[in-house]
Specification:
- The structure holds two protein chains of two kinds.
- Chain A is of the alpha/beta class.
- In chain A, the strands form three sheets. A nine-stranded mixed sheet of chain A has the order 1-13-2-3-12-11-9-6-7. Chain A has a two-stranded antiparallel ribbon with strand order 4-8. Chain A has a two-stranded antiparallel sheet with strand order 5-10.
- Chain A has helices spanning 2-22, 40-46, 77-88, 102-108, 216-224, 240-255, 258-286; strands spanning 49-51, 64-69, 92-96, 114-115, 120-121, 134-137, 140-143, 150-151, 156-161, 166-167, 185-192, 195-200, 228-232.
- Chain A has two domains: 40-240, 3-Layer(aba) Sandwich (Rossmann fold), CATH 3.40.50; 262-287.
- By secondary structure, chain B is of the alpha+beta class.
- Chain B has five domains: 32-175, no CATH class; 181-279, Immunoglobulins (Immunoglobulin-like, Sandwich), CATH 2.60.40.10; 285-368, Sandwich (Immunoglobulin-like); 373-466, Immunoglobulins (Immunoglobulin-like), CATH 2.60.40.10; 517-603, no CATH class.
- Chain B has 13 helices and 26 strands.
- In chain B, α2 runs antiparallel to α3 (54-64), α3 (54-64) packs antiparallel against α4 (71-106) and α11 packs antiparallel against α12 (567-582).
- The chains are: A alpha/beta, B alpha+beta.
- At the A-B interface, α7 of A face α2, α3, β25 and α7 of B.
- Chain A: InterPro entries: DUF4350 (IPR025646).
- Chain A: Residues 54-220 form the DUF4350 domain.
- Chain A: It comes from Candidatus Methanodesulfokora washburnensis.
Chain lengths: 287, 610
């Protein structure tokens, strides 16, 4: 009876693990999310990996670009200090944010620039909705998704919204008299010592449903400048499913440590051999 | 409870109130275009066209070519914008050509002007043709979108009218047989100081005869500087004040534009150019910067010498502007900003011109260099997890100078720790965490000096980490597997004992075994004998022993459920035994035997006879 309960518990545990691993992640910006709002395509295509921002100072600036996409949680002083060191070592950092905590980072880095937090609308030049406006990067078009704007007069503007865009401050879907009209800067380049900080006022240009729209892919290549992207995964809001999967992955990481890995690799053939010998003996006994 | 419910409700509702960060572009539906919003741009285009800013209107129309619209109105909108854009481009060409043709006519180049007029008329004809299509498109836009496209139409119509009128005026002037005029200009001097006066002379003639009382305009360095009237011989003179321009030379010329009745008789004309060399004093400025190599936060000494005193100078360095009045020797002390990056820098001095003293310019270079640091790390080559270790980090600047406070960061694989120190050497205590993997790993020490004059640097070394816990885990895995194997193997051997092995039990043990109660029962009565045999059969079949405290009927009841179909036979036999023992009634022994035999058959068991 006891063995039946144990077997049942084992089955339940295995099912839970399987469901956790197989159940699709739907978190915004999750590297494991294959749906419209995830970053799976970007991670696959650009060979990107996750980074804890607190360790940014150990990243090689000649090989990597750090991307901070849609941060939702606060930045610690350690995060900021670490990123500052990376920039001062000549690194390139891309901050793509709209309504998240990006301004905290800009303030922490003492960059006189901020995300206005007002919704950018373009009723005439868009990809299907005024809140999916087109911005111009030189003569090329990049598609935005619920973007805001940057208030900067000091830095080089890389991309700006169209002549017809406006800030829908009260979000009534109509242009009111007091609402400022474009073009507005949506991407600027901030020199930071020998490094550079690229600030984009939209967090969504890299998500699965947007990365191939208009010239977004070319723009991404420009942002990466031929280097390997490291995406800050320490400032996303994670769902319970994601947290469970992360814990499982940490367990897998532990199981992959040399000690566990090699010891298991040696034990399994040994056990299999024992079982085989036992079965052979049994078969001989029956004869 | 209510509070908890309210709190949960707030928690549920709050995320839905948050600003969405994106939507699925596949799920959005194209909304119809806001006619008022579009009309505001038509209004702007119209005002640009009316004011002659056709470049401005072209810019907006160019943007409008890319607008997104629902499929039902997409074609009509794009057609209207295309036509408006091409009409605007035609008018833009007409407008600028008309200006050019007028300039040519003014300069007396009537043939050139006439050729240009032909182009203008061609473009206007094309514009008139496009206008018909534009009218239809504008009507449709107003009807189906509700935007005021008529505003653009009206502005274009007005512009076509204005251009046509301008072309007609010019045509009349150009086609008239006007007399050519000749204008000459000369000066006695070829060079002059800035601010000086220079006398200019000239004459205006038509067919060799001087034209009297005609206004001649003098232009110097591209600007109108005055005018003069011709005398009875057609000659004129002009006293030019040389402008304060600090350039090597300027060009001077005169223009005659016929006025009033003259415009129907004479062509306009432009004189030859007179070149005047300008003289002014260039101040000699020299800059020296000490030292040539400086560290961030260090001091720079800038010495400026000037050949002329009291010059207002602007000094540009490190994105700063410093204003100074220069004397023969001016010394300026500067502090290099702390957060500046390494590299070559320039200091630029520009002196402002004053009177005959022209502007001065001089620059000097210097280099901002950070002081390199040397890092020595003393760290055990072999480490065990959980054991506290110390890494000794010594940092010293170039030339054995102390670097002051600094942050030292040690990272080994995923382990990272840092310390702040003020002394040359510092100890960083750490221990490898319990689940740290064993192996050869890179230990990297990054030193970030607090002083901006020092360069940050890092060194790497390799260590061998051994984690006994993980090694133990490595050993435990096969041991646990072996134990599990043995544990599951044992019960399997137990449950399959060979039946044949039972007789192998030592005899002595069997002899010592106590006989059951039923075996001890003895009786001479044949019916009771049969009952005892039946009991032994039932005991064997059910495993339930007859105990001394059981009555015959009690035992029959106890075993009834286990016997199933055979219980009736056993109950009948029990009844016969009871009858025989307790009622002295006559019972047929053959009946008892027959029942017992039936029971034997039913149970499939047989006992040796008693």
């Amino acid at each position: 009876m006891r063995s039946y309960i144990l077997l049942l518990l084992l089955l339940i545990a295995l099912t839970l693990i399987a469901v956790t691993l197989v159940y699709p992640i739907r978190d915004d910006f999750s590297p494991l999310n294959p749906y419209w709002n995830g970053l799976e395509k970007f991670f696959d295509e650009k060979n990107a990996s996750c980074l804890n921002l607190a360790a940014a100072d150990t990243v090689d600036p000649s090989k990597n670009v750090i991307l901070i996409i849609g941060p939702s949680t606060s930045f610690t002083s350690r995060d900021i200090q670490s990123l500052r060191i990376f920039l001062l070592r000549g690194g390139r950092v891309v901050l793509a944010d709209d309504f998240g905590t990006g301004n905290e980072l800009l303030t922490g880095l003492k960059v006189p620039l901020n995300l206005t937090g007002y919704l950018l609308s373009d009723p005439l030049i868009n990809i299907g909705s005024p809140y999916l406006p087109i911005a111009y990067w030189g003569k090329r078009r990049i598609a935005l998704n619920y973007a805001t704007t940057l208030n900067s007069s000091k830095f080089r503007v890389i991309a700006q919204s169209s002549f017809f865009s406006y800030l829908d401050i009260n979000q009534n879907g109509k242009h009111d008299e007091n609402e400022p009209t474009g073009p507005f800067p949506v991407a600027v380049l901030v020199p930071y010592g020998p490094g550079e900080l690229l600030v984009i006022s939209d967090s969504s240009i890299l998500i699965n449903s947007m990365e191939s729209r208009e010239s977004n892919r070319d723009f991404t290549d420009f942002l990466l400048s031929g280097k390997t992207p490291l995406v800050d995964c320490s400032h996303f809001n994670m769902s319970k499913a994601s947290m469970a999967r992360n814990s499982l992955q940490e367990t897998l990481y532990f199981l992959q440590s040399p000690e566990v890995k090699y010891s298991t690799a040696l034990t399994i053939p040994w056990i299999v051999a024992l079982l085989l010998i036992r079965n052979l003996k049994k078969m001989r006994g029956h004869r | 409870m209510r509070k908890i419910l309210a709190f949960l409700l707030i928690l549920t509702v709050l995320p839905t109130l948050a600003q969405p960060r994106h939507v699925n572009p596949e799920e959005v539906t194209s909304p119809s275009i806001d006619p008022q919003f579009l009309s505001s741009f038509y209004q702007l285009i119209s005002s640009y066209i009316m004011s002659g800013n056709l470049t401005g209107s072209s810019d907006i129309l160019n943007h409008l070519l890319n607008i997104t619209a629902p499929p039902d109105i997409r074609y009509i909108l794009s057609r209207f914008h295309e036509l408006a854009y091409s009409e605007n481009e035609l008018l833009r060409a007409v407008y600028s050509n008309l200006k050019l043709a007028r300039d040519l006519a003014l300069r007396g180049d009537l043939n050139g002007s006439a050729a240009m007029l032909n182009d203008i008329y061609r473009s206007l004809a094309e514009a008139n043709l496009t206008y018909i299509g534009l009218e239809d498109a504008a009507r449709e836009v107003e009807r189906r979108v509700g935007a005021r496209a008529g505003l653009v139409l009206t502005a274009i119509a007005k512009m076509i009218g204005n251009c046509s009128a301008g072309a007609s005026d010019l045509n009349e002037t150009v086609r008239l047989n006007l007399t050519k005029t000749e204008l000459n200009l000369s000066s006695l001097r070829t060079e002059a100081w800035v601010g000086d006066s220079v006398q200019l002379f000239g004459s205006l003639r038509a067919n060799g005869t001087g034209l009297a009382d005609r206004k001649v305009i003098i232009v110097a360095d591209g600007r109108e500087v005055g005018s003069s009237l011709t005398d009875i011989n057609g000659s004129f003179s002009f006293n030019l004040t040389v402008p304060y321009k600090y350039v090597p030379s300027i060009l001077i010329y005169a223009i005659f534009i016929p006025n009033g009745s003259d415009s129907l008789r004479y062509r306009s004309s432009v004189s030859n150019n007179v070149t005047l060399k300008l003289k002014y004093i260039t101040p000699y400025i020299n800059i020296s910067v000490e030292p040539g190599n400086v560290t961030p936060g260090g001091n720079l000494s800038v010495n400026i010498s000037s050949s002329i005193v009291n010059l207002n100078a602007s000094i540009y360095v490190f994105d700063m502007l410093i204003k100074r009045v220069l004397s023969y020797y001016t010394a300026i002390g500067l502090r290099v900003p702390d957060n500046i990056s390494e590299g070559p820098y320039k200091i630029l001095v520009l002196s402002e011109p004053s009177g005959v003293v022209g502007p001065g310019r001089e620059e000097a270079s210097f280099y901002v260099r950070k002081i390199g640091i040397k890092i020595d790390v003393n760290i055990p080559s072999y480490m065990l997890a959980l054991i506290p270790y110390k890494a000794k980090i010594c940092v010293i600047g170039e030339g054995n100078r102390s670097i002051g406070p600094y942050a030292a960061k040690l990272s080994i694989s995923s382990l990272s720790m840092e310390t702040l120190s003020n002394s040359t050497c510092t100890n960083l205590s750490f221990s490898l965490p319990p689940l740290f993997p064993s192996g050869s790993l890179e230990a990297r020490v990054l030193v970030i000096p607090n002083g901006t004059e020092f360069r940050q640097d890092s060194v790497s070394t390799y260590i061998v980490a051994i984690n006994p816990i993980m090694v133990l885990v490595a050993l435990l895995i096969p041991i646990a597997a072996l134990l599990a194997y043995r544990h599951y193997r044992r019960p399997k051997l137990k449950v399959k004992p060979k039946i044949e092995e039972v007789p192998e039990v030592p005899k002595a043990v069997e002899e010592e075994k106590k006989p059951s109660y039923s075996e001890s029962l003895k009786s001479d009565d044949p019916v009771v004998k049969e009952y005892i045999r039946a009991v032994m059969l039932v005991e064997k079949a059910t495993g339930i022993q007859l105990m001394p405290h059981h009555t015959i009927s009690e035992y029959a009841k106890i075993v009834a459920s286990k016997l199933g179909d055979s219980s009736e036979l056993f109950q009948r036999l029990s009844y016969l035994a009871e009858m025989r023992l307790y009622s002295s009634a006559e019972v047929d022994p053959s009946m008892a035997r027959s029942i017992r035999t039936q029971l034997e058959l039913k149970l499939g068991l047989k006992l040796p006879s008693i």
